[in-house]
Design brief:
Strand order of the largest sheet: 1-2-4-3-5
Distance between the termini: 35 Å
Helix content: 25-40%
Number of helices: 5
Number of strands: 5
Largest sheet: 5 strands, mixed
Order of helices and strands: HHHHEEHEEE
Radius of gyration: 15 Å
Shape: globular
Strand content: 5-15%
Length: 157
């Protein structure tokens, strides 16, 4: 499978489901992502730099992992809510190698001024995965531009 970087630290395959890669190809999906939600890529790069040496996993199917719907999801998938932001290229479910999502969420909230592309985050208490590592949490982030006087919204579904 092709490995095309969407940015310095993320392959396009990490950000979109395999359906889109197989149907449209990684190059086209990279252009689509850059056009429709550049805030996602910029925000992920900002978060990656903020977390220093921390690894962020979104989709890992490129490396024979189990995550295929943690970025852009196909509209017909039964994963998540019917009108989930994932189906509109707005959200990622991040998994961290060593950090707990609670700690990452609190650090982001304490430093909102350096994360202008995070609009909202699902409360970490509501994000337990049934796939992959037993009981592993993910960190749901909605990307977009947030005005300087707006706070990041923490929501509970």
């Amino acid at each position: 499978m092709t490995k095309l970087y969407a940015s310095s630290n993320f392959h396009i395959e990490e950000l979109v489901s395999p359906y889109y890669i197989e149907t449209f190809g990684p190059e086209k999906m990279k252009r689509i992502l850059a056009r429709y939600n550049p805030f996602m890529v910029k925000g992920l790069e900002t978060l990656r730099a903020f977390l220093s040496d921390e690894s962020i996993t979104i989709n890992d199917y490129l490396w024979n992992g189990v995550y295929t719907n943690s970025g852009l999801r196909h509209p017909s998938t039964s994963v998540g809510a019917e009108l989930s932001g994932h189906k509109f290229m707005l959200c990622t479910d991040n998994k961290y190698k060593t950090s707990d999502p609670k700690d990452v969420q609190e650090a982001i909230m304490d430093n909102q001024h350096i994360h202008p592309f995070i609009r909202s985050m699902e409360d970490y208490r509501d994000t337990r995965s049934s796939m992959g590592q037993l009981g592993r949490h993910w960190h749901h982030i909605q990307w977009g531009y947030r005005l300087p006087d707006e706070d990041i919204d923490i929501f509970r579904p």
